[in-house]
């Protein structure tokens, strides 16, 4: 179920990118608003759907001591560090910053974009998989819905960015759609790990949260503030955050 839910959430990336095929290309402000919304959903999901359940799972196992807090803090830092390491080791390219990581002259520019987006999306699938492995449908469904909702504007933002650097409409949509397909891989990994050992459950939840927090801080927010659309980006973040909070409380 974790794999299927993360696949469904990933496919929303393709749905969100559909407007580039049939309508006028949205401007940069719309893209930054959409990315801000995605950041808000991920931020709320990190705390309400991952970190808090991690603390609760640790308390059931170790009691209300410093151990649950220590586990959550350590796992969050591990998640942040792992994605940061991937960010350094894998050659990739940001839409505005240009290439980072090792030299990769042999890689076509399109693959550099795909690797960058893969780094971005993998933690989302991991989070959905961990949530389903931890609590089944009841624990994972709110997060899967939230990630799916934020994947739609994210897919639009990716497609619009590719259009802006010269890719055709169909190619932009195809690449944006394909980026969502890495999420089931993360879902399989997350659900598998926590299903094998309940002792790993609090670690897996907080690790996924840390991975998403790194993506929010290092990738999404700087990207939305680079072209003077901070107000739109902040509005999008606020809407995404409260929507995810509402979904988590009402469905969970």
From TrEMBL:
It is found in: Cell membrane. Its main location: membrane. Keywords: Cell membrane, Membrane, Transmembrane, Transmembrane helix, Zinc. It is a multi-pass membrane protein. The chain crosses the membrane at residues 33-55, 67-90, 110-132, 173-194, 200-221, 233-251. Signal peptide: none annotated. Belongs to the ZIP transporter (TC 2.A.5) family. This is ZIP family metal transporter.
């Amino acid at each position: 179920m974790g794999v299927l839910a993360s696949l469904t959430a990933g496919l929303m990336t393709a749905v969100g990118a559909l407007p580039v095929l049939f309508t006028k290309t949205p401007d940069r402000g719309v893209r930054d608003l959409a990315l801000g919304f995605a950041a808000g959903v991920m931020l709320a999901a990190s705390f309400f759907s991952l970190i808090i359940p991690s603390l609760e799972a640790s308390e059931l196992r170790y009691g209300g001591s410093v151990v649950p807090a220590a586990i959550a803090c350590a796992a969050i830092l591990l998640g942040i560090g792992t994605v940061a390491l991937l960010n350094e080791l894998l050659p990739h390219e940001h839409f505005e910053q240009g290439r980072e990581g090792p030299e990769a002259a042999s890689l076509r520019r399109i693959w550099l974009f795909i690797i960058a987006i893969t780094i971005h999306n993998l933690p989302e699938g991991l989070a959905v998989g961990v949530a389903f492995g931890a609590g089944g449908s009841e624990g994972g469904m709110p997060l899967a819905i939230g990630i799916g909702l934020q994947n739609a504007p994210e897919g639009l933002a990716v497609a619009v960015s590719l259009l802006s650097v010269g890719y055709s409409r169909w190619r932009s949509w195809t690449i944006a759609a394909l980026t969502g397909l890495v999420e089931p891989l993360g879902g399989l990994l997350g659900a598998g790990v926590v299903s094998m050992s309940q002792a790993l459950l609090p670690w897996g939840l907080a690790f996924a949260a840390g991975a998403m927090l790194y993506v929010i801080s290092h990738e999404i927010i700087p990207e939305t503030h680079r072209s003077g659309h901070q107000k739109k980006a902040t509005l999008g973040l606020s809407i995404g955050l409260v929507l995810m909070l509402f979904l988590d409380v009402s469905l969970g």
